[in-house]
Known about the structure:
Layout lengths: L2 E9 L4 H15 L3 E8 L7 E9 L11 E6 L2 H7 L3 E10 L13 E5 L1 H7 L6 H13 L4 H11 L5 H16 L3
Parallel strand pairs: 1-4, 4-5, 5-6
Antiparallel strand pairs: 1-3, 2-3
Helix pairs in contact: 1-5, 3-4, 4-6, 5-6
Amino acid sequence: MSTKQMKITGFGGQGIILTGMLIGKAASIYENKYATLIQSFGPEARGGACQAQVIVADDPILYPYVRECDILISLSQESYTTYVPSLKEDGVLIYEENLVIPGKLPKGVKSFSVPSTAIAEDLGRKIVANIVALGFFTAVTGIVSPEAMKKAVQATVPKGTTELNLRAFDKGFEHHKNGK
């Protein structure tokens, strides 16, 4: 793997920062890799533009900011439009298929869509759409094992929501594995 630079993007309230934190936690604590997390969100927070920059590496990370995205996760149209230029050629785009209409992509980009909000609604709680996307990301990229990611979810989500979040993770993971 060596080093993977990624941005998780959307709007405040979608769990963007939590998703970045879970990726970093799974990599660093449960797989003994190195990880950094930088977060930013607009002044209006809920509903405003939001991003988490995550770097996962086998070796120490000397600069914590993402220069070029290997992976872009986009859960809103505004975030897609804003951050797709940072996706490098031969990168990976994962997007919420019911909220994002992708345009022209850099050369060689592999694009994957997931209806994370619809899947979360089927589970009874729209709020876990980010965890559905996290499961999908885990299946698509293989950067972190599903076991490590599930441990991070269990250790991080609010008490009483663990079972729901793990079901959401599994649904997102299965959505990619089933070729949907």
